[in-house]
Specification:
Layout: H1 2-29, H2 37-45, H3 51-85, H4 97-112, H5 117-139, H6 148-172, H7 174-185, H8 193-220, H9 224-229, H10 234-256
Helix pairs in contact: 1-3, 2-3, 3-8, 3-10, 4-5, 4-6, 4-7, 4-10, 5-6, 5-10, 6-7, 8-10
Length: 272
C-alpha cells in the first residue's frame, strides 16, 4: 500500500512538472509579438539581435522564470502555513509577512529615498522578520502557548497594524505613493533576470530547508500532542517554519511586488 501511494505521488509530481514546463514554454513562445518554437530556439542558439530574439531573451524568459519561482515559493510557504495553523485558507500573509515587508520598503523609500535593490532586499527581510516575531510573541502569550487559533488572530492583528502604517505613510507622502504603486499593485512585467539571480540563493535556501523539514511537518499535521509524543520540539519547529516563510516570502517582494497577488506567466501572454 505504501509503495502504491509513493508511486502515485511520484506520478503526480511528474505530471505537474511537465505541465509547468509546458506553461513556461507557452509564455516564451506565445505573445503579442509573433514568434514560433523554432524562432524561440534560435534566440538561444543563434542570437541575431532581432526584436523577436531580444523580446524572448530579455522579456519573456525572465518573466517565465520569475513567475515559476514566485509560484513555487508561495506554494511551499502556503502549505507550511496551512500545516502550522491547521487552516486550509492560510497563506504567508497570515503571519503578517506581506504587510511587514511592504511597510519596511515603503518606510525606507519614503523617509530615506532608498532605491538600491540590495537594500530593498534586506529591508524587506527585516520587515517580514519583525512581523513574524511579533506574531510569534503575541500568539505565544497565555497558558496554552502558541496555538493555531492564536497564531491566526495574532497574524490578522499584525497585518492590520502594518497595513494601516503603510497607508498612513502613503496618504501623507504622495511622492512615495507614485514610487511604490508598482510594488503594491503586484506584477512580474518588466522584471529583469538580474533580480532573480540576486534573490535566488535565499529562495533556494528556503526550498532546501522546506524539503528537509517535510518529514517533521507530516508529523505536525497530526497535531501538537502527537508531535510532542514522538519527540519533536514543537516550539522550535514552528519558529523554523517562520524562518522558511520569511525566506520565501520576503524575497518575493523584489520579484513581483505585493505577495498576495500571484501573477502566473501564462496569464500575461498578450503583453509582448
Amino acid at each position: 500500500m505504501d509503495k502504491m501511494l509513493s508511486g502515485k505521488r511520484i506520478l503526480k509530481f511528474v505530471i505537474v512538472t511537465i505541465v509547468l514546463i509546458l506553461l513556461m514554454g507557452m509564455s516564451i513562445i506565445l505573445g503579442y509579438t509573433n514568434t514560433s518554437i523554432r524562432l524561440s530556439y534560435e534566440a538561444f542558439t543563434s542570437f541575431d539581435g532581432s526584436n523577436e530574439h531580444l523580446i524572448i531573451q530579455t522579456v519573456r524568459l525572465p518573466r517565465a522564470l520569475i513567475a515559476a519561482s514566485v509560484g513555487a515559493s508561495l506554494a511551499i510557504a502556503g502549505v507550511y502555513m496551512q500545516t502550522l495553523t491547521k487552516n486550509p485558507l492560510a497563506s504567508p500573509g497570515i503571519l503578517g509577512i506581506n504587510a511587514g515587508a511592504s511597510f519596511a520598503v515603503v518606510f525606507v523609500l519614503s523617509v530615506f529615498s532608498v532605491s538600491s535593490l540590495s537594500i530593498f532586499t534586506w529591508v524587506s527581510f527585516l520587515g517580514a522578520a519583525i512581523a513574524a516575531l511579533a506574531v510569534y510573541f503575541i500568539g505565544g502569550v497565555g497558558r496554552q502557548g502558541l496555538t493555531p487559533m492564536k497564531i491566526t488572530l495574532a497574524g490578522a492583528a499584525i497585518t492590520a497594524l502594518f497595513s494601516s502604517f503603510t497607508q498612513g505613510i502613503l496618504v501623507s507622502n504622495e511622492a512615495a505613493l507614485d514610487e511604490v504603486l508598482f510594488w503594491l499593485s503586484g506584477s512580474i512585467q518588466g522584471r529583469k533576470l538580474e533580480i532573480l539571480v540576486f534573490v535566488f540563493p535565499y529562495l533556494f535556501l528556503g526550498w532546501l530547508l522546506a524539503l528537509i523539514m517535510t518529514p517533521m511537518m507530516n508529523v505536525m499535521a497530526m497535531g501538537d500532542d502527537v508531535a510532542k509524543g514522538l519527540g519533536l520540539k514543537v516550539g522550535l519547529l514552528k519558529l523554523t517554519v517562520g524562518v522558511i516563510v520569511i525566506l520565501l516570502a520576503g524575497d518575493l517582494l523584489q520579484l513581483q511586488g505585493r505577495l498576495v497577488l500571484l501573477v502566473l506567466s501564462f496569464l500575461t501572454l498578450h503583453e509582448v
